[in-house]
Amino acid sequence: MELPIESGIVEAPDTAMFLLMGAVGAVLALAFLALVISKILQVCKPNEILVISGRSNKLADGSSVGYKVLHGGRGVCIPLIETVERMDTRLIPVMVEVQNAYSKGGIPLTVHAIANVKITSNRGYVRNAIVRLLSMSQRQIATIAQQTLEGVLREVVAELTPEEVNEDRLKFAATLAKFAKDDFDKLGLELDVLKVQSVGDDQGYLKNLGRARIARMVRDAQNAENEANQAIAQAQATARERAESAQKQAEAAVITKKNELRAEMANLEATAKAIENEAEVAAETARAQAEQELMALRAEVEKLRLECDVFLPAEASRLAAEANARAHAAPVVESGKAAAEALRLVAEEWKDAGSDGRDLYVLQHLKEFVEAAVARVSRTEIGELSVVDGGDGASFTGAVSSFPLAVADVLAQTGRAIGVDMGRLMQNKAAGGQR
Question: Which residues contact 370 (CB under 8 A, 6 or more apart)?
């Protein structure tokens, strides 16, 4: 039992050592891989140019060179076979100073200028920079550019007069850049900015030239001032003369206008007086016409008042009476139409039912017929009735008994009107009641 325990205790350190060695090996492998990748993969910054040399590279024109140019982006470089060199394309300030540069006319000049140059990124001239400036520092490139610009500057100064160099410096700088372009293209450089700071000479030519020019300017200024003063004096005299003439003309015009105003005022007063007289006459005429029209209007108003007070109320009363009569007559007419229609329907029913139907109808409404006859007889009014009786009361009895007879007579007349024998019907009804 003790031997396995001891063997396990011995094996644990060996396993830890193997794991540690494996981790160290993995880290070293990753570091080596990163180093290899950094050597193989090359990244080009925007302000530089990479030149990868060691293998043949075919150009667009068909020729071959032993390097490859990379401007921006990234490229692959095979270690031990290819090498990488970087060219900085940032601006390089260059101070240019030329002394005793003889200008046109033999005047020595001293010119101070400042320029900013850089390695060109133009594909047509970058190979010139690679061939001539590769592995050079910016200071060395600045020296080459300075010497080139100084030589070009002497050439340009020799073709210009001191006045042209000093007065039009922009033209001078443009001419200098134009002359330097061919030399810079051969070197693979690019002139970005060129400014002429000062132009002078030890002979004092430009200073004397300035003095003479200043003197001419002072003379011209004095002449211009004299001419201006003379013109001002002449203008003032002319203005005074014109002012006096204008004042006299204005005074004459004022007098003329005053006379015209007086005449116009007299005409206006006469016209106003005439208009006033005409207005008074017209006012009197208008007043008379207005009074006549007022009387006519009063007559018309009286006529309208009478019409409103008498005629219109009478006409309204007549129309109201007619409307009232039509309103009262309308129910009677409609009632008559309804009664006629009812009688027509009853007649048709009686015609269809025959004599038995009429008899039955009369018997059913016999009470109404009797009541109607009694009411008709009751509406009879007797103003005075004188009864002469012989003492036995027969005459008074006969007069009193005339009421039932009148009722019977009304019933008989109603029966004849509708074609029914009322006496027979009443006898049959009485006989039926006794049975």
Answer: 407, 411
Q: Are 199 and 109 in contact (CB under 8 A)?
A: yes
pLDDT digits (tens, 9 = 90+) for 166-196: 777 788 888 888 888 899 999 999 998 888 8
CA distance readout (Å), 309 to 237, 255, 299, 323: 96, 75, 15, 21
Phi and psi, residue 97, nearest 5°:
-140, 125
pTM: 0.42
The single-letter code of the amino acid at 49 is: I
Q: Is residue 376 helix, strand or coil?
A: helix
Mapped to the 3 state alphabet, what secondary structure does 22-50 carry? HHHHHHHHHHHHHHHHHHHEEEECCCEEE
**Could you tell me the two tokens for 125?**
């001239």
**How many residues comprise the chain?**
435
Closest CA to 101 of 215, 202, 226: 202
Q: What is the pLDDT of residues 123-148, one digit of tens each?
A: 888 888 888 888 899 999 999 999 99
CA distance 165 to 104: 10
| Six token digits for residue 225 | 């001032």
Q: Which domains does the chain have, with CATH numbers?
A: 2-76 (no CATH), 89-203 (3.30.479.30), 365-380+401-435 (no CATH)
Contacts for 87 with CB less than 8 Å, ≥ 6 apart: 48, 49, 50, 51, 119, 129, 130, 133, 134
Query: Looking at the DSSP assignment, which residues form a beta bridge with residue 102?
Result: 108
* Residue 9 neighbours by CB under 8 Å, 6+ apart: none
